[in-house]
């Protein structure tokens, strides 16, 4: 008699709930990226606002620096899915799940969904902090919600890449390498001022930096008069990262299926 595979939705709910509980029991996965981004947001706004208010939309420097902090949260907090996978691999739990009828993509989707929920909470908290520091987007609350949603979409691609790295190598250092690739890039975009105020080699670097379009799109959500055309370059980069993340996960799953490790 053949054992029927568990319903994908039921297995996904159960494993996602387990990943969320594991995240809750590991506060560093939630608090470390949030506290780091909150620290930089407060320090940047306090030290640079007097110089940057004249360069920022609406005259509020927090409108410039908050999207940067949300972007860095997207790929530092995005490591959560990979870390959860690595812990299960190191404990042997993932191997036991691999022997069950649960569909393989579900084993990755669960920690990714848990990481997405955590990232949404982090983005909401940071956006609320931005409001306390004086951020008043022209679009009001819908603009705040759109900013949180944009952060989650950007972070989802990094969550998938981190999950693929954890699944492929089974080590925390492999997951951390995803953050190490993207974090330095954030300093070679229009970090502290809008891109039109950059000059020389820094202007060129920001122009070719793949993080620049998402950052400018997120800043655009806080500005009056933006259109869908203004957000298109950022949306295309986010779509490319998501596609790369999905492809990387499939490749890592196929390799683990072939090798059994």
From TrEMBL:
Query: Where does the sequence pass through the membrane?
Result: 22-44, 64-86, 106-133, 145-167, 174-193, 231-253
Q: Name one Pfam family in it.
A: ABC2_membrane
ABC-2 type transporter transmembrane domain mapped to chain residues:
12-221
Matching entries from InterPro entries are given as: ABC-2_transporter_component, ABC2_TM, ABC_2_transport
Residues forming coiled coils? none
Is Transport among the key words of this record? no
Question: What's its membrane topology?
Answer: Multi-pass membrane protein
Domain of life here? Bacteria
The keyword Glycoprotein is assigned to this record = no
The alphabetized UniProt keywords are: Antibiotic resistance, Cell membrane, Membrane, Transmembrane, Transmembrane helix
| Main localization (coarse) | membrane
Where does this protein reside within or beyond the cell?
Cell membrane
Q: Which PANTHER family match?
A: MEMBRANE COMPONENT OF ABC TRANSPORTER YHHJ-RELATED (PTHR30294), TRANSPORT PERMEASE PROTEIN (PTHR30294:SF38)
Report the protein name in the record. Answer: ABC-2 type transporter transmembrane domain-containing protein
Source organism (scientific name): Streptomyces sodiiphilus
